[in-house]
Design brief:
Elements (H helix, E strand, L loop, with lengths): L15 H9 L1 E7 L5 H8 L5 H4 L22 H7 L3 E5 L36 E5 L11 H15 L18 H30 L8 E4 L15 H4 E7 L7 E3 L3 E2 L2 H9 L24 E5 L9 E5 L3 E6 L11 H4 L2 H11 L5 H4 L9 E5 L17 H17 L10 H15 L4 H20 L2
Parallel strand pairs: 1-6, 1-7, 2-3
Antiparallel strand pairs: 1-5, 4-5, 8-9, 9-10, 10-11
Length: 458
């Protein structure tokens, strides 16, 4: 989910538990992930490295016969904590002592980096490093019956329901009833997530460890929507980040640019553990921290759909480069195309109900470069890349991105091998057999189309 919490300015709902965290600690208003989809993002987060540097940039890659190994010297953050004597955990929701939470890392790793799934399993007095994963935006599901369910769940648990009239859609989405209902369910999932955060805080408090623990709250990428998840607009990469703990000033706000990989270095630094020199994340609360002038993000293959997009964002400008500009914005993707909101968008198009901004979703080609002035265009609608008045800014942003790709050894500069693609697709298809026969056929057709386009140089 995105930063749709009341402490971040969301007015349709109230999120008291996350708001209290922000009041107790520091809230970052410009935190960004380096990938707008879960597995590359988590691979980066858990190593403090750009997924493009460690070769884990393709979504759900290295899962088949062909594997991906981390570069020499790169270690998972929980391993570094474990080596320092910490009890390390990975918890799903609800927290269970019998099952690890979702990892979704795109490389070979040893589950032994985690001692367990609940810090209650540690020795008395042993410090702990815990990752706790709530369902987040996935609570809302993808279809109307699931939207109704989460709304009912919110009403039952929280005593009220967010009215559909409170929904304020971004201008690039039409007010179709299904899209409004989906966003309403999304807001309810935010409220339920807030309640889960409250449960964790109450447990830490009851156990007497809250006052000497650092608590970090974030999401792993933006809302799953047509222009959010899988894309490099702010809807896909801007996330909340709140940190509380000893010596962190209450109610402080940081507006400088940070990346989610910085949490790796931050966590180690707060614990007094040496940050590996190879780590690209920065200790954003450290005494020697030098603020970033820009943040970077990358989108590559997602499931069966091949793509290659890079972005650089400063406080004011966003530059996006579409390396496969000759492909449509909404390339075929079985996961997203099955969502009721995408079906609704296409229905609106057929009915002629979309304005020029909303029709951008259906462009059959993308501009090679996109440039947005975020101060006047926060929704990233007006592309200034061909505006002569922004030529110097375009050149500077273009060069900044080129330098980052070179300096960080962006592995996406080389196409994924057909052998790796086939290896991952074979496992993907095998897992869907017997479960989603209709989607299976769509994926097979999409795979054939991706290969055809690649051969044609599209």
């Amino acid at each position: 989910m995105s930063a749709n919490f009341s402490c971040y300015g969301e007015t349709a709902i109230q999120t008291p538990h996350v708001d209290r965290l922000a009041a107790r600690g520091v809230k970052f208003t410009n935190a960004y992930v380096t990938a707008p989809v879960c597995s590359p993002c988590r691979s980066a987060f858990i190593t403090g490295m750009y997924q493009t540097t460690i070769g884990s940039h393709h979504h759900r890659s290295g899962r088949g016969v062909r594997k991906i190994a981390l570069p020499e010297g790169v270690k998972l953050v929980p391993q570094l904590f474990k080596d320092a004597g910490y009890f390390t955990t990975l918890s799903g929701w609800p927290i269970s002592p019998n099952k690890l939470g979702k990892s979704d890392y795109n490389f070979e790793w040893d589950t032994a980096v985690y001692n367990g799934s609940d810090w209650s399993q540690r020795k008395e007095g042993q410090p702990f490093f815990a990752q706790i994963q709530t369902p987040g935006g996935k609570l809302r599901g993808a279809h109307p019956e699931q939207w109704e369910k989460v709304c009912e769940q919110a009403a039952k648990r929280l005593g009220s329901q967010t009215p559909s009239e409170a929904v304020d859609l971004p201008p690039y989405y039409p007010p179709d009833p299904d899209i409004v209902k989906d966003w309403q369910a999304y807001l309810e999932s935010v409220r339920l997530t807030d309640a889960m955060v409250g449960e964790v805080i109450e447990r830490l408090k009851a156990e007497g460890v809250l006052d000497n623990s650092y608590v970090l709250f974030m999401t792993d990428h933006g809302i799953s929507h047509a222009r959010g998840k899988q894309f490099l607009y702010d809807e896909g990469i801007h996330v909340p980040l709140i940190i509380t703990g000893p010596d962190i000033p209450s109610g402080s706000i940081r507006e400088d640019l940070v990346e989610h990989i910085d949490i790796a270095a931050l966590s180690l630094g707060l614990a007094g553990i040496e940050v590996p020199k190879v780590m690209q994340g920065r200790h954003i609360l450290g005494p020697d921290y030098i603020p970033r002038e820009a943040v970077f993000a990358a989108r590559d293959r997602c499931d069966e759909t091949i793509d290659h997009i890079r972005s650089v964002r400063t406080q004011r400008y966003k530059y996006i480069r579409n390396f496969l500009s000759y492909r449509p914005y909404l390339q075929p993707n079985a996961y997203k195309d099955a969502k009721a909101i995408l079906i609704a968008l296409r229905r609106c198009k057929q009915r002629g109900e979309l304005d020029d901004v909303q029709m951008l979703h259906f462009s059959q080609r993308r501009p090679m470069e996109e440039l947005y002035d975020l101060s006047s265009d926060p929704y990233e609608i007006h592309n200034l890349a061909e505006d002569p008045g922004h030529g110097e800014i375009l050149l500077a942003m273009r060069q900044r991105l080129d330098s980052w790709m070179e300096e960080t050894d962006d592995k996406g500069r080389q196409s994924e091998s057909i052998e790796m693609y086939d290896s991952d697709m074979a496992l993907y298809l095998d897992r869907l057999k017997g479960r989603f026969p209709k989607r299976l056929q769509v994926i097979e057709e999409n795979i054939a189309l991706m290969k055809k386009w690649s051969i044609e140089g599209r």
